Amino acid sequence: IKMMDKYKQTFMQCDLVRTYDFQYFYIDMPGFDIADIKVKIDDNYLNVYGKRRRQYDEMDIMNISERVFGEFHRSFFVGDINKKLITAKMDNGVLIIKMPIIHELN
């Protein structure tokens, strides 16, 4: 996991599941608008960026504050992959990324 100063690492817990042909990333992103999520592949790293916005005015009086807001980032080394076959969808606040595994021929 690679952290960046600009992004908080206290959010977006992830499960990584691998089958013979695919890697699946299940990333918790409750309260994120799909328009505020970006998934990119850079130099064999899967990068997921998100911004969770407050649902109220920041000038309102805060009595209790337990929810986390702001910009977030997760980065995972994925190796050599076929970028054209990656799919992503949001399901009940979970971002699901399906990534094919490239098998080397002997």
List the helices and strands and how they pair.
Elements lengths: L13 E5 L3 E7 L8 E6 L2 E8 L17 E8 L9 E5 L2 E7 L6
Antiparallel strand pairs: 1-2, 2-7, 3-4, 4-5, 6-7
What's the N-to-C terminus distance? 31 Å
Strand segment tally: 7
Which runs of at least 5 residues are low in confidence (pLDDT < 50)?
Answer: 1-9
With strands numbered from the N-terminus, the spatial order across the biggest sheet is: 1-2-7-6
Global structural class:
mainly beta
Rg measurement, Å? 16 Å
Mean pLDDT: 84
Gross geometry: elongated
Brief synopsis:
The protein has 106 residues and is mainly β. It contains no helices and seven strands.
Task: Give a written overview of the molecule.
It is a single chain. The chain has 106 residues and is mainly β. Helix content is 0%, strand content 43%. The strands form two sheets. Strands 1-2-7-6 form a four-stranded antiparallel beta sheet, with no helix packed on it. The protein has a three-stranded antiparallel beta sheet with strand order 3-4-5, with no helix packed on it. Strand 1 and strand 2 form a beta hairpin. It starts with 13 loop residues before the first strand and ends in a 6-residue tail after the last strand.
